[in-house]
Design a protein that fits this description.
Tetracycline Repressor, domain 2, MgtE N-terminal fold, 3-stranded mixed sheet, 22 helices, homodimer, two-stranded antiparallel sheet, CBS-domain, mainly alpha, 6% strand, 478 residues
């Protein structure tokens, strides 16, 4: 039995233990290199092996997901030492668990034969997940090792792009005919050595493969054996199609508390299923990728990626922000004469831009979330505009007053304070209107409002805030 | 059978249909108010009722989660009209599904009797979720309506704070004794009318309630009836304790692909279970709350909250940012003389602050994620510092060169260009060092690095960027 906190502790302790063993191993290696006497070499070689044997034992006891986490936590050289110690039959599973960036470093270290062997333990839907990272000749070797049926499954699984139901789908379905009794089903099941994970229901099909209903295992257990499948099967259920969005399927799993759901083709024939563990992995990956892109990283970065790879992963975002910063800089450039006369403007202007940027991002966050939940219609969009304008007006009075007071206290100039208050109020108004309008417009144009809306609002509130503040100052103060 | 895209379409269509019906209903209401003739009134009253009857039919056909989404999408007045049409026995389930903010608006509309009735359909762990929002006297009424065993469960469920395993736990466990055969178990199950959702395994306990093992339903089905439970039950499994972190449990469900896991007390006795649907809901809520706090919202805001409530939800974040903006403003204030002499500095300084802020946030994002995955140790922290310093140096050369060139092209002053390049490089270095140091320090101090690290880095890169750029300019140009 495993305790959760043991398991959590263990992740960290394992990492430390592995680092320790690797460190000893490296020490010995460097000794061996220095002292080339044959006897010395022999002794050190044995000690050296001892560490690796201990390391291997530790790895064998870990779940593949935990080995994957360990590999991600190690710098590349040490990562590959550990990877060499992993048993060949576990390599496939572990490759599935590591992040894309780390997977590439591992695959680069394996020869074709090893790679083909690693995939042999995997299901076709799992091979499809690895396929994009495999060298061409390896992939062809893998295909040759499959049965015709598996080859067809692999082709099917690979034909659906990431982010679709097809990409989440597996083929581990137990389907039963609709014209049998519960007793027959139970006998059939007992002949199987084991059932696929996450089999909470059997899929009932007719002679042509058409999906007719679902028979939950739990219902099967409480039904009298002589009952016909058709009389106990569920008819009200959700079926998925492979080309549908994974995000929508995830939403349905969450709303309807599903463990598995059937996937059917256009003619209603059962082709696979989606399970909740695929959905959980999908949600976690989406969350991570949203978090990364919100933080300006293009993709999940290997913690120990080379400097050059990291720079490339981050440059798009920096370049976009540089362009918006240049624009804002030119807006300020328009008012250089005013700043030369009242230099306090330079010190005060970042306040206006910063606060309206924050406020705009608050609005965007709320609207993007409501859009994702499908809660916005033409009818309530108007109410949302009205509400946000109300909020920004009130905020304008409150925060405008505070910043105006700040300006007055520092520069003892009440006109400057008034301009500051007015500029803050107007900038907040701009931020709130654009904060609603940008995501709605992106949605209407078929773009994902979660991507890029934040950059746009910041660009607008920066340049807009500078323009409003310096413009008002030029009109009223200069 | 339901198609996924029907279900998605439906969410939106339902919202539109409901809005339409509500609109007609309101039109009729206003007519009735204007024309008080008794006959007219009667006719209009009938039409009016017709709309509501249609609306009610529509609502009855929807899943509670879909009704919840609908309620969240409606302005408060319309929301309450719809809420009144919901059948009493479904109110409890729907209250569980709506967001906290919307739940409060619904509960405020119900009298004590209705509320007690709504909770009657719920399990004790669900009542515990609602409890904080119930008026005191209602809650006491609910307690009185429970059996002693349920009361004990409710007390237990409520004793664990949000974010713990105890808060995710339910009590729908089927436990079996360890000294029986599979046949006995099957007979026992067949006597149940139905099994709880997400029962993928039975919990095997001894005479004292100690958890001895798990019997997966799927294994039960493929085992010969005469076999003893002890010989087929699983002994290697994860058990949770109620006081452990929900986050860790969610991680374990993800890593080990679980559908349910037992919860035991300190003496190893079975007290409940956690199911994957509770975990999925938890992950979604955590994601939403991370997204909201990253966007500067304290909590999930009712889309149609009053202006005043929204202002309060958002003010903390704005206040914190105002303070950091004031500090940055005073840093600029130190260099007003330099700006008065070279006004171009005012236009260029936001570029330095902005880009180093973005770069610092990229580093923070990566480190916070690695910390969450437990991938950082004392040994590799040094390597991470080295890597980030390398990245920022290279970025400093690239982006420093670009901004230097920009400054030179606009102001035809190569010294200004050089200062710009140097300031960019130094600010990026500051951003990278602080981007690693801040989350590591927060982790060491036992704070959540996901909260607040981003505000801190932005404050430092703003003030620091201004200081470095204006300082260098003062030394070399003025």
């Amino acid at each position: 039995m495993t305790e959760l906190d043991e398991s959590r502790q263990r992740v960290h302790e394992n990492l430390q233990r592995v680092t320790e063993l690797l460190h000893k191993h490296e020490l010995v290696e460097s000794l061996v290199h220095r002292q080339q006497g044959p006897r010395q070499q022999l002794v050190e070689g044995l000690v050296h092996k001892l560490h690796l044997v201990e390391l291997q034992k530790l790895l064998d006891a870990l779940h593949p997901a935990d080995v994957a986490n360990l590999l991600e936590s190690l710098p590349v050289v040490q990562r590959l030492i550990v990877w060499d110690l992993v048993k060949a039959e576990r390599e496939g599973e572990i490759l599935l668990e590591v992040s894309d960036a780390v997977r590439q470093t591992l695959i680069a270290d394996m020869d074709a034969q090893e790679l083909v062997a690693a995939t042999e333990q995997l299901d076709t839907d799992e091979i499809a997940d690895l396929a994009p990272d495999l060298p061409r000749e390896v992939f062809q070797g893998v295909i040759r090792s499959l049965s015709p049926e598996e080859r067809e499954q692999l082709r099917s699984a690979m034909s659906y792009p990431e982010g679709t139901v097809g990409a989440l789908m597996d083929f581990d379905v137990i389907s039963i005919r609709d014209d049998v009794t519960v007793e027959v089903v139970l006998r059939y099941l007992r002949r199987l050595d084991e059932m696929p994970d996450h089999t909470d229901q059997l899929f009932v099909v007719d002679g042509t493969g058409q999906l007719k209903g679902l028979l939950p295992i739990n219902r099967l257990l409480v039904t009298r054996p002589k009952t016909l499948v058709t009389t106990v099967m569920r008819l009200d259920f959700l079926k998925l199609r492979p080309q549908e969005k994974a995000e929508d399927a995830a939403g349905a799993f969450e709303r309807y508390d599903l463990v598995s759901a059937p996937v059917v083709d256009d003619r209603g024939r059962l082709i696979g299923r989606v399970t909740v563990n695929a959905v959980v992995d999908y949600i976690r990956e989406e969350t991570a990728s949203d978090m990364l892109s919100a933080g300006g990283l293009r993709e999940d970065e290997d913690l120990f990626a080379s400097v050059w790879k990291s720079v490339r992963n981050r440059w798009t975002w920096l370049a976009v922000n540089l362009v918006t910063a240049f624009i804002a800089s030119r807006v300020i450039g328009l008012f250089e004469d005013s700043i030369a006369r009242i230099v306090a403007l330079a010190a005060l202007m970042p306040i206006i831009a910063g606060i309206s940027g924050n406020s705009g991002n608050q609005t965007i966050t709320m609207i993007v979330r409501a859009l994702a939940l499908g809660q916005i219609t033409a009818a309530n969009a108007r109410k949302l505009f009205a509400k946000e304008i109300g909020v920004s007006t009130l905020n304008g009075l409150i925060w405008g007053g505070v910043v105006g007071l700040f300006a007055f206290l520092i520069y003892h100039n009440w006109q400057l304070g008034l301009v500051m208050t007015g500029a803050m109020a107007l900038s907040l108004l701009l931020a709130s209107v654009m904060g609603v309008a940008i995501p709605l417009a992106m949605e209407k144009l078929g773009r994902d409002p979660a991507q890029g809306a934040s950059v746009m609002i910041t660009a607008i509130t920066d340049s807009g805030g500078f323009f409003i503040f310096l413009g008002l100052a030029t009109v009223f103060l200069v």
